[in-house]
Amino acid sequence: MKMLKLQIDGQELQAQKGTTILQAAKSIGIDIPTLCHSENLKPYGACRLCMVEITKDERTRLVASCVYEIEDGLVVKTNTERVKKIRRMIIELLWPSLTGLAKEYDVASSRFWPKETECNLCGLCVRYCSEIRKLDAVYFKGRGIDRELAIVPELARECAFCHQCHELCTGGWIVYHSDQAF
Amino acid sequence: MPRLKSPDDLYELREKLKQERDQRHTCVTICSGTGCIACRSQDVVAEFEREMAEKGLEDKVALRRTGCYGLCERGPIVVILPERICYLGTKAEDVSEIVSETLVKGRHVDRLLYEDVETGQRIVRLDDIPFYRKQERLLLEANSLVDPKRIEDYIAIGGYSALAKVLLEMNAEAVIEEIEKAGLRGRGGGGFPVGSKWRTTRDVPSDPKYIIVNADEGDPGAYMDRSILEGNPHSVLEGLIIGAFAIGSQKGYVYVRQEYPLAVENTEIAIKQLEEYGLIGKDILGSGFSFTVDIQRGAGAFVSGESSALMSAIEGKVGEPRLKYVHTAVKGLWDKPTCLNNVETFANVPLIINNGSDWYGRIGSDNSKGTKIFSLVGKVNNTGLVEIPMGMSLREIVYDIGGGIPNGKKFKAVQTGGPSGGVLPEGMLDIPVDFDRLEKVGSMMGSGGMIVMDEDTCMVDTARYYTDFLAHESCGKCVPCREGLRQMLRILDNITSGKGREGDIELLEELSEFLQEAAFCALGSTAPNPVLSTIAHFRDEYDAHIRDKRCPSGVCKDLIAYQIDAEACIGCGTCARNCPVDAISEVEGENTVYEIDQGKCIKCGNCIDVCPPKVEAVVKISSSVLLESA
Description:
The complex is a heterodimer of chains A (182) and B (630).
Chain A: E1 3-8, E2 11-16, H1 21-27, E3 51-56, E4 59-64, E5 74-77, H2 81-93, H3 99-104, H4 124-131, E6 138-141, E7 148-151, H5 156-160, H6 173-177
Parallel strand pairs in A: 1-5
Antiparallel strand pairs in A: 1-2, 3-4, 3-5, 6-7
Chain B: H1 7-23, E1 26-31, H2 34-38, H3 41-54, E2 61-66, E3 78-81, E4 85-87, H4 95-105, E5 114-115, E6 122-123, H5 130-133, H6 151-156, H7 161-169, H8 172-182, H9 194-203, E7 210-215, H10 224-231, H11 233-247, E8 251-257, H12 261-277, E9 292-298, H13 307-314, E10 338-342, H14 343-355, H15 357-361, E11 371-378, E12 384-389, H16 394-401, E13 411-416, E14 422-425, H17 435-440, E15 449-454, H18 459-473, H19 479-496, H20 504-518, H21 522-526, H22 529-547, E16 561-564, H23 574-578, E17 584-587, E18 593-596, H24 606-610, E19 618-621, H25 624-629
Parallel strand pairs in B: 1-2, 7-8, 7-10, 8-9, 11-15
Antiparallel strand pairs in B: 1-3, 3-4, 5-6, 11-12, 13-14, 13-15, 16-19, 17-18
Helix pairs in contact in B: 7-11, 7-14, 8-9, 8-11, 10-11, 10-12, 11-14, 18-19, 18-22, 19-20, 20-22
């Protein structure tokens, strides 16, 4: 397998082609915060918490580190002011789901109206049910700001007796609702 | 129907069809685009058929249902060729007069001709009407020459000769070079160079490759692509087949909105005819090149117009954008190299091949070549489809072609680029319209929506409308777009209902920047444009809503009130009878006058509409606060 050289937060390292920035950072002990990511599931790139600044060919931009695969000569910065600003905003928007992270990023409260449900729509349960459990009992209903989680009525019984996705849940919706649907 | 086995077969057929067309010198064309159909143009067609049969004119005069003529405001449009006599607002009742006067005696029916607003003069020829005079209708002109349901019409005007030229005289490299040299840029919004997109797709060492026509036009008020597909589907399909040859694809898709039934129907018919003539299928025109096309109908999601979401939708998945760190040109539909272009982009291709890149390069501005079709709508006299060479100023479009603002109102802004575009104020009317200049001033070309707004439009309400549209049409996958737009909409809702607070504008700006930086796809990162551009150019309106609880344009219902001027009221009671919530009642006193119960009033505005013009006793006040203190 081809090895690629890159730099993360000033540290030089080598990693295999196909590795994501998130994985490469972890391998040298740099922790990038995530919400919708799970090592056992396909990268999703939706929560944007893991965004980092990359520089390639003298061009700097922001990418989601959970999906962006490393390239030779890539320079990554995981904790710049620009990145922190985004994370703070996400913490506020999903308040109070990320209170643990809030302390680290110095966010004491949210300026926004609270979410109407406990669900963060991170999709971990949906993807777990589809990719690993292969049941597709949980799905997203609607789009845009009307998007919500739902359980397929015909599969509610199986869902109620499974609970395998519960430990992945970031907001609590599936934990509260998987039994109720049945 | 004979299968065309070589270019010579095609040329022979064309000559034959041309002769057939020439036999009947005069042709009555009747616009059968969606707009004119809605104004009953099909009744006009039926009446023409009946009347011409009765007068025995069928052998001398041809009748043709055509695609959109563009001046939709004044449909149904009837144009008599070759003189190009243009009758507007034609009804079935007018047909017998047109037949007996124009077709039989060669005289004009004056009352149906365009009347110049200033001089009162009647204009006979279509091309002399101010709306058309400044246009350069490279693509739309063919709409009037063909019946979209007849491939023979398209072949007769030289259709598919560009395809024949490409297949037999050029190689893929030469085609791509020609498109690159022409400087054609994608008409779907981004303005990406088409040639280089084709080249990237071609160069990926992976098979099969796919090519897609994006006809998922979803901008409110925009219908350019719709009119091309409805009016001249073959121009798009010819461009598609040429594109397929250039990138080395054997399978194409037309992704078209289900909400465009006529476009779907005409494209289906066109594909069937192509199959019958052997212009798609195996070994096209004896060149050895094979290609097939399928139609994929969209299920009505705005976000599916985004290229990767569209590809998900074709795959049968939910139309959500995919990560594009690897381009769709490399990994697109079913992870195969895929080239996606907009309807209008493909329609430009045969023109470039037929006339050459040098010719094409002379049209338009420096970095934006060719023409662009806009749907000019909103508060403008001539609403409709306009095609202009790029680089024309907004002022020329709005005033010279669009005929200015109706009812003597003042121009306030023009919104370009659809929901993700921005508004431009009067001071920017002289900006030349092309990809780069519009983007520089915070708007964008988009797919070509152009909405004109007059002084009665509230810019905060406008920003709220677009944000609401985008918040509901976002796919909802990523946090910035879903949660960011949810909060922006809440803030705008508050401002427009008089609950705005100091700091709201700054918070909107902060959220906007966050969306631009962090959103998953271009729908999210461009979503703040309506908010940012209205703040940039109309900040005073935001301030009026927030600080004075006043809507200067009198639009936001919570910030306006209706009142009856007791001095002017003649006590006729029309307003009271038309009030849907019984909020208007008689005031006891010497003279009969009426008054509005502000607690009951829902601010529908019926009273002001029905109050007799000579009386005008109902007045709209732009602040509910003012009224209470009065």
